[in-house]
Amino acid sequence: MPYLQPSGGWIELICGSMFSGKTEELIRRVRRAEIARQKVQVFKPRLDDRYSITQVASHDGLHCEAETVENAREIMTRLRPDTTVVAIDEAQFLDWTVADVARMLADRGLRVIVTGLDLDFRGEPFGPMPLLMAEAELVDKLHAICVVCAAPASRTQRLINGQPANYHDPIILVGASEVYEARCRGCHKVPGRPVQVPG
Ligand code: TMP
Ligand code: MG
Ligand code: ZN
Fold this sequence. Notes:
The chain has a domain at 10-142: 3-Layer(aba) Sandwich (Rossmann fold), CATH 3.40.50.300. 19% of the residues lie in helices and 27% in strands. The protein is built from four helices and 13 strands. It has helices at 22-35, 73-78, 97-107, 129-135; strands spanning 10-16, 40-45, 55-57, 63-65, 67-69, 85-88, 111-116, 138-142, 144-145, 152-153, 155-160, 163-164, 180-183. Strand 6 (85-88), helix 3 (97-107) and strand 7 (111-116) form a beta-alpha-beta unit. The longest helix has 14 residues, at 22-35. The radius of gyration is 17 Å and the shape is globular.
């Protein structure tokens, strides 16, 4: 991020579908910050207990230590005075105040690295991610590979007993490749989606 002032804070956001490498990229940035002798704290919502509650973990098995929080506000209470870099994984599961928290930290001069799913299984904006994307100085949208046609995948297909999940199913369902796969727009299926005709 050479054009950002090293003395000022900022927010960098990494989003994209499941299996697009978001957590892998977060871990890469955290490691580089640690090599640069920055004081880093990594947070993740407690909701995501897929691999571990004391680590963030990518689908490929990379991991780093993390503190679990019940809500976004808890990030502020756990912040150590010498921390210079805050990383937040799975921000889509946090409440909307995560955008205020990220802003407060960046205003104080911290580097804030946030990852999360931009879209839920229905293909609609996920929780506070639109706010964070608007607030961030830098946004990277990563792509996976569509399992059906091998095009770049921007969406996450939820499958229940091998069938596309219905639009009206609950938004939160923690899981990995047993329930989800990466798909492109054309191959993404959401039965029950209301037809929206503009105008
Ligand atoms: P990942 O982006 O690190 O792969 O993790 C995404 C998590 O979000 C995973 O536990 C599945 C969950 N999830 C939902 O709860 N609802 C959804 O609509 C989607 C697409 C994922
Ligand atoms: Mg992840
Ligand atoms: Zn496809």
